[in-house]
# Entry
Amino acid sequence: MLWDWSKSGTRHAPLTRLLRRLPGVGTAAAYRFGLVERPHYAYGVRRATELAARLGHRGVTVVEFGVAGGNGLLALAAHARYYAAATGVAVRVVGFDSGAGMPAARDRRDLPYLFGPGFYAMDHERLRARLGAAELVLGELAETLPDYLATRAGLLREHPVGFVCLDLDYYSSTATALDLFRGPAHEHVLPRVTCYLDDLPGTIEQIGEAAAVAEFNAGHPERPIGRVLGLRSFTPFDPPWADQIYAHHRLDHPDYARLEAGATGDQLPLDP
Ligand SMILES: C[S@@+](CC[C@H](N)C(=O)[O-])C[C@H]1O[C@@H](n2cnc3c(N)ncnc32)[C@H](O)[C@@H]1O
# Structure
């Protein structure tokens, strides 16, 4: 127990579960303080709905790349229901996965020493029975993502992507997922998209997710993906996941420079 409590990464989950049970901590407080399952997903949905509302959108899409058994997608769907009710912004939830577990590694940077083909297979029927309105797109991402972008263009226009969870483990699969941000259709994404990068801890910059992001940034200086600086210090309970929150800034998006209604105060008068 002491071993677990000595490390912030393992300390947080039981701590938040404990705080959640305190008398008087209702759903609104649990969301406000990040005392929910997968608080990083809740944070992403909150940022997406907030930005959509500030820019006058009535809908937004949140995406999980890499679904496995489906616990994350179900948590994302629950957070989507909460923030849709709280903000009035309709939230579409989409998960992408092979449905058959990890494909074979394609690149040395895929961490082939940690992951093998077939890891994280999914029970589709069980998951689909619990998904509700959330969409599950099954198949190799290099095929399903371009097809999705082409066939759901109208839906994406009405619900631009505002949050993306990257949890595909491989460098090569993550590079494919980032095609979402390479596309020319500005109307498919908000000008700033919150991203959660699940697979950074324990890797190095030159492999895995970090390498895919670095490569994307080198090729797209007008659409950087960068870590949100200082987030941990102004997030309740100082959670380690805050270090894995990134944002995609689409500087060439026509709405990039639009002032977000209500985003900040506009005066800082001198103290009396
Ligand atoms: C670690 S699991 C995801 C875990 C899940 N997000 C969760 O929190 O429970 C990684 C998943 O990525 C999927 N994946 C990796 N590369 C893929 C690819 N190229 N196409 C489709 N799915 C892929 C695998 O099928 C696997 O289920």
